[in-house]
Amino acid sequence: ETISKGNHAHFMRKEIFEQPLVVAQTLQSYVRAFEGEVAIPAADFDLSKVDRVTMVACGTSFYAGMVGKYWIERFARVPVDIDVASEFRYRDPVLEEGGLALFISQSGETADTLAALRHAREQGQKIAVVVNVPTSSMAREADLLLPTRAGPEIGVASTKAFTCQLAVLAALAVNLARARGRLTAEQEREIVAHLAEAPEAMAKAIDHDEQIKAMAPLVAPARDVLYLGRGPDYPMALEGALKLKEISYIHAEGYAAGEMKHGPIALIDDNVPVIVIAPSGPLFDKTVSNMQEVRARGGKIILISDADGLAQAGEGCLATIEMPAVHELIAPLVYAVPVQLLAYHVAVLKGTDVDQPRNLAKSVTVE
Ligand code: G6P
């Protein structure tokens, strides 16, 4: 069956717009909304005994893993190590017999990730895989298969597979937390209710498509763009920068907001747009104070936050994008949308080949 773009100009746009649907589809396999429970497939090992997780992935899937690390450590209090696959084997990681190694991949075929998986198995690890292609090598080699239900992703720059990976990782974090006695049934019900709100909140984020398109001329002429975030929004800053680099060929860097003063602040002048990803919450004030440091140096800020956050800090920004107010657990799923749309519209304005960017491949099967 051939897949069509429908009424979208590019597959990437279609895939961004599909996210509320495919994230809902993915969540349905992991969440029993009525019972207020998360249920990941049964594994042939005891989740309650997992006391360390080793995560490995590449590219966008790696950033999903970084968000997952925040969630697993926060909710389940299980330490997580995370590596890019091309580094993992060569640093000779310390892997204790019977540990859980988790591999994240859209394609399930990325050579570095697959080699890392086989290395982990040789070291006696249990293998869990979050993968979008159910017939892939990684899916076949897993002890615990955690599929994403994004459907075929054609655009080389990953969008819907990423948010579906986040949905699965959130479910896994909650499941681990319960298995480890870290969540009461009541707390789990609350989290499940928040997860169930994600697709609708993502749809609201997509409603900003036209507004974000109108902002593209603010970013398209830049030579460098900086993305800032804290906590789980730090990997979102990395992912935002990666999306922009991949499809618009503008140099972009994602930075932990608090780390900016240790280097990238030297780059700031009025030619460097700075995209700040800052849902309101416990880390908001700190991020805003980093944002003020940018402003004091003439930097032009695009702030992505919710109504409360924008009321507090939106003034004086070059532009703002208002996201619905959401629970911190689902914020990365929602805030993924505006960073994807911004990269997309900047690339379209620059006239690049959005679905097939130069030098990149959808699935990299060489090491
Ligand atoms: C390539 C793609 C990226 C993707 C990465 C990892 O570089 O262009 O979009 O994130 O591979 O791919 P995987 O299939 O393992 O998630």
From TrEMBL:
Residues 43-182, 215-357 form the SIS domain. The keyword Transferase applies. Keywords: Aminotransferase, Cytoplasm, Glutamine amidotransferase, Repeat, Transferase. It is found in: Cytoplasm. Its EC number is 2.6.1.16. Catalyzes the first step in hexosamine metabolism, converting fructose-6P into glucosamine-6P using glutamine as a nitrogen source. This is Glutamine--fructose-6-phosphate aminotransferase [isomerizing]. It comes from Sphingomonas humi. The lineage of its organism: Bacteria, Pseudomonadati, Pseudomonadota, Alphaproteobacteria, Sphingomonadales. The chain holds residues 241 to 607 of 607 of the full protein.
